[in-house]
Amino acid sequence: MSDFLNSIDLFKKKTESACKLVFKTSVLDLQEAVMESTPVKTGRLKSNWRVKVGTPEDTSLYAKVEYAVDEVDEDEEYGIF
What we know:
This protein has two domains: 1-37; 41-81, no CATH class. Helices cover 48% and strands 5% of the residues. It has helices spanning 3-37, 44-47; strands at 62-63, 79-80. The chain has a two-stranded antiparallel sheet. It is elongated and about 60 Å long.
């Protein structure tokens, strides 16, 4: 390859690496901000935030707290969030 093509290829690799680092750092910063703004009663809700790579997080986490009542069976005392 010519020097020009080599420099373009090197630029591409460095740019891809930098973009991945910016993305990862942004996701972790966002997760931290969400966690810090989560109300704390028992700490369980705050500690259950998850980040997953590639696919959406699909686990259901249960907590026995009043503010975690998005989907509750009338016979259940645990909220699913």
